[in-house]
Design brief:
single chain, alpha/beta, TIM Barrel, six-stranded parallel beta sheet, 7 helices, 30% helix, globular, binds zinc ion, binds fe (iii) ion
Amino acid sequence: MILPKIGHSPADYHMHTPLCKHAEGWPDAYAKAAIKCGLTEIGFSDHNPMAKKFDDWRMEYEEFPRYLDLVQASQQQFSDNLTIRLGLECDFIPGQESWIDKLSQQAGFDYLIGSVHYLEPDWAVDDPDPKWEKRWDGSIEEIWEKYWHLYRQCAASGLFDFLAHPDLVKKFGHRPAGELKRFYEPTIEVIAANNMTIEVSTAGLRKTCKEIYPSREFIELAFQANIPIVISSDAHRPEEVGADFDTAIKLVSDIGYTQSAHFAQRKRTLVDFR
Ligand code: ZN
Ligand code: FE
Ligand code: FE
Ligand code: ZN
């Protein structure tokens, strides 16, 4: 896909590497794909290592130096055509804040992404393993309640530069009955009060829910509350870099956004994208 020429394209700050064990393509392949689709700035944000063995879909702590080297090598290789930032997608888990803080000091990160995947120590809400399907039976309301409660804690933690895929809990199409504003409004309040940025992620379009994360209603509330956005692909393969950015740009422009956030050395600037 070639992006329309509308001034600066938003940066795509959410992409993974094979170090997390469920993505393919090394950083140079992502960088080439980014240049091909007209992006001028990207960032890597692989799943953060944990202090000890935790699950099978993140880089191990022993691989962390290799991650930093890989990103640095691609920064140098593509410096003429592409700005490449160093990020990390961090699981927000209450009680693990000091670990994230420690990791953040081990490299010159441009940004950290805060994500809520785990609602329980052994269960990530986006885990596609069919063994978790039954868990939703009769519990959608409760799961949404828990998810958004954690998301607000993540937003208020002060650990992160932007918040990933805000309504990831809808990934498999499970939505409770009634107005979803009851989850969105208190969350928007916390995000705004903490001067946080949210991600508008096209990854949802590739999942069962077939919808950008977050919903249009959530983005509208965010716009009214002056909350900055980034647009991300959450690419796990080079072909996904910049995926559906035209759709996302159209959606957020329609709502009123004209700027997206850029990050360098954990400082945010807002840049016009048209
Ligand atoms: Zn992933
Ligand atoms: Fe994630
Ligand atoms: Fe991701
Ligand atoms: Zn992600």
